[in-house]
Amino acid sequence: MKPRHPTLTAECRPISELLARIGDKWSVLVVGLLGDGPLRFSALRRRIDGISQKMLTATLRSLERDGFVTRTVFPTTPPQVEYELTDLGRDLLVPVGALAEWARQNQARVDDARRQFDRQNGVANGRAQASPLSAP
Amino acid sequence: MKPRHPTLTAECRPISELLARIGDKWSVLVVGLLGDGPLRFSALRRRIDGISQKMLTATLRSLERDGFVTRTVFPTTPPQVEYELTDLGRDLLVPVGALAEWARQNQARVDDARRQFDRQNGVANGRAQASPLSAP
DNA sequence: CGGGATCCCGACGGATACTG
DNA sequence: CAGTATCCGTCGGGATCCCG
């Protein structure tokens, strides 16, 4: 079994690191929203239903740290803070958008496979029994 | 359960669900390795440095459940189990490969941005201070 | 050899409450 | 408005033992 693509393992480490950065619960959502243009903190908060202000802050800090987002403070009263994608962030949006498109077009296939798997094994819930993986 | 509102989610929810499935620590690595051809359990274990047998099992179960991987048992002694990508899995490899390629070409830009951010703020570690996000 | 069962810990992430 | 600080539950995931 010789790898026909010798660079595959070399390709997988960067992707793992990238997933460690933006593979969390909210980063991609935020980047996707900012893809339409700059938004203020509350605007993001309102658009992302279910996110806590703590996680939104942390997510934005992380994205800013990795150079995907800029943070601009307007010293008005009350203060305004605007977040905007950098060039790097907009670049990232391309492959992420492709993945999103794939997900949109193939989610039915994945769901079908999952239902079939769950039917063949006696699973009460929608979750693999002895598996700590996968999300609801 | 989390009540999702249809605000933004039309475009971004599929990608979030996909990330919830393959965005974990090992799934993409396994899929990437299987892209070269079927592999046995121990072969995967040996190739993925640092993975525990529990997580490899769980990852493979999850991938099998979602229809990305097939599991074939050969009733030999000792038993052999081979894992192979399905058509869906190979399809997934395309956008994931694109993302991996992006990560490979842009990791320097991300690292530079991160170092600059950490220098501007007084950060002792390589980690954002008040942020629970980002990886070691 | 492949993988199930358990124990355990630290990180992720939600819910307030407080500040400038 | 835009955070920061604190408490706390959940769960990903590593280590270990055991079984067909």
Question: What attributes does this structure have?
Answer:
homodimer; 136 residues; mainly alpha; three-stranded antiparallel sheet; 57% helix; elongated; disordered N terminus; disordered C terminus; DNA-binding
Task: Walk me through what this model shows.
- The structure is a homodimer of 136-residue chains.
- The first copy, chain A, is mainly alpha-helical.
- Helices cover 57% and strands 10% of the residues of chain A.
- The first copy, chain A, contains five helices and three strands, in the order ααβααββα.
- Chain A has helices at residues 8-22, 27-34, 41-47, 53-65, 87-120; strands at residues 39-40, 69-74, 80-85.
- In chain A, strands 1-3-2 form a three-stranded antiparallel sheet.
- In chain A, β2 and β3 (80-85) form a beta hairpin.
- The first copy, chain A, is elongated and about 60 Å long.
- Residues 1-7 and 125-136 of chain A have low confidence and may be disordered.
- The interface between A and B is large, with 69 and 70 residues.
- Chain B binds a DNA duplex (20 and 20 nucleotides) through residues 24-25, 40-42, 45, 52-58, 73, 76-81, 130, 132-133.
**Most extensive interface, residues per chain?**
A-B, 69 and 70 residues
**Model regions low in confidence, pLDDT < 50 over at least 5 residues of chain A:** 1-7, 125-136
Q: What can be said about the biggest beta sheet of chain A?
A: 3 strands, antiparallel
User: Oligomer, anyone?
Assistant: homodimer
DSSP E strands of chain A, number: 3
Q: What global shape of chain A is seen?
A: elongated
Distance between the termini of chain A: 36 Å
Mean pLDDT of chain A: 84
Strands ordered across the widest β-sheet of chain A: 1-3-2
Overall structural class of chain A, as computed from helix and strand content, comes to mainly alpha
- How many helical stretches of chain A? 5
